[in-house]
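ARCHIVE CARD
CATEGORY: sequence design from structure
SOURCE FIELD: tokenized fold
FIELD CONTENT:
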């Protein structure tokens, strides 16, 4: 029983997975897309995550497995080309999330210590943090867990302090008028803004991987999912309100890649800027650490289920070979693509995966004991959001859409070739 996870630890996994590097990476992007309606964009994305959490709750209780999402997809569709393609996409989506976190680290770090020019510094810091986190994963998985447990406490303490002082600082701030309805983007842009930043919520699915180890699963698994998602929705919405109400849109645009630190300046000055920058570095570093481990586990589970070559279950320096592949792929994407393209590709990947998981919840409703209206609603919401995101981004960020489409197709083609040749 000593190895069992309690409710507090399960909630920490969910919150830690969501409040990783996502909010630091995509907040500025969200404001650029949604303007004064940014809190609504975060709320809408959060509601889709909350509906999807219902399917995850029921599937996690019925099919507890360290494979998490991989197990659910195989349970719903068997070991087919389709399930293999979606599971491959899950692995690639981990890589995209890692790239997003590394990009955030590379954007915040030069504010503390500049080495050369802004672009060079970004590539140096983003690459170094991936290499360092990979080395730590090879050195000790236990250290990865310890870093994550401390980081969750530190980043939440700093973010909650930011919220407390930020809300206080809104009193009399002339920029508060930016939240007025007249400064909101059109409903379509608000919804699309919410979908581009959907990656900031995807981390709740990590609770599924811990499901076999959670104490009193019938009670604690639902509480872990719902509490963590609701807490993060509230946190993100208030952070968005404070940011938009504290800084002029022009300043937010200038500091888009590190806007959360900039938003701490009006009340706490340079000290606040530095503290939030440190929080961003701790958060993104811990998120890279944990996601590298998660990504290597996903590749291991997929190959163990014979949906990718069994050689991926092999070990290199006492860790799955997928760890090295994940790290190299992350380095490539981080240094080649812009933040918006990475975020768009990540959101497209996870919206598609969550639409499929919701469909599985609907398909297996009798086995898992769920009201089938909720998972089919989740499936429709994810699908509609996915279509809207692709449609809007195709005109403004074609690279991100084409990259995401290419990734999805490649995942299925690789699986089809593998199934044909095995």
């Amino acid at each position: 029983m000593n190895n069992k996870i309690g409710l507090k630890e399960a909630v920490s996994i969910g919150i830690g997975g969501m409040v990783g590097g996502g909010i630091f990476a995509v907040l500025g992007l969200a404001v650029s897309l949604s303007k004064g309606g940014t809190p609504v964009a975060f709320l809408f994305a959060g509601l889709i995550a909350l509906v999807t959490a219902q399917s995850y709750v029921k599937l996690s209780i019925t099919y507890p497995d360290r494979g998490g999402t991989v197990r659910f997809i195989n349970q719903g569709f068997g070991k087919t080309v389709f399930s293999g393609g979606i599971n491959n996409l899950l692995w690639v989506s981990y890589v995209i999330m890692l790239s997003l976190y590394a990009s955030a680290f590379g954007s915040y770090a030069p504010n503390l210590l500049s080495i050369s020019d802004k672009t060079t510094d970004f590539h140096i810091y983003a690459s170094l943090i991936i290499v360092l986190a990979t080395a730590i994963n090879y050195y000790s998985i236990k250290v990865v867990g310890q870093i994550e447990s401390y980081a969750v406490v530190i980043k939440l303490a700093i973010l909650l302090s930011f919220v407390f002082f930020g809300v206080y600082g809104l009193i009399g701030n002339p920029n508060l008028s930016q939240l007025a309805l007249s400064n909101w983007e059109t409903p379509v842009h608000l919804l699309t803004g919410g979908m581009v930043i959907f990656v900031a919520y995807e981390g709740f699915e990590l609770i599924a991987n811990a499901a076999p180890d959670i104490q009193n699963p019938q009670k604690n698994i639902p509480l872990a999912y719902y509490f963590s998602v609701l807490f993060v929705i509230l946190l993100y919405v208030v952070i968005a309100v404070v940011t938009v109400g504290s800084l002029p849109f022009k300043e937010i645009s200038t500091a888009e890649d590190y806007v959360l630190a900039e938003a701490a300046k009006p009340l706490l000055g340079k000290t606040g800027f530095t503290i939030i920058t440190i929080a961003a570095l701790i958060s993104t570093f811990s998120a890279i650490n944990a996601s590298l481990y998660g990504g290597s586990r996903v590749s291991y589970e997929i190959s163990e289920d014979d949906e990718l070559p069994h050689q991926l279950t092999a070990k290199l320096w006492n860790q799955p070979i997928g760890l090295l592949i994940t790290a190299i792929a992350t380095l490539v994407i981080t240094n080649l693509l812009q933040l918006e393209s990475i975020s768009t590709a990540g959101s497209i990947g996870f919206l598609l995966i969550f639409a499929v998981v919701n469909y599985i919840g609907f398909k297996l409703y009798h086995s898992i004991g769920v009201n089938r209206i909720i998972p089919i609603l989740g499936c429709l919401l994810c699908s509609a959001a996915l279509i809207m995101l692709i449609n809007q981004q195709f005109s403004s960020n074609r690279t991100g859409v084409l990259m995401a489409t290419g990734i999805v197709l490649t995942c299925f083609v690789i699986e089809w070739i593998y199934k044909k040749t095995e």
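CARD ANNOTATION: The chain has one domain: 7-421. The mean pLDDT is 88.
SHELF: design records, drawer C
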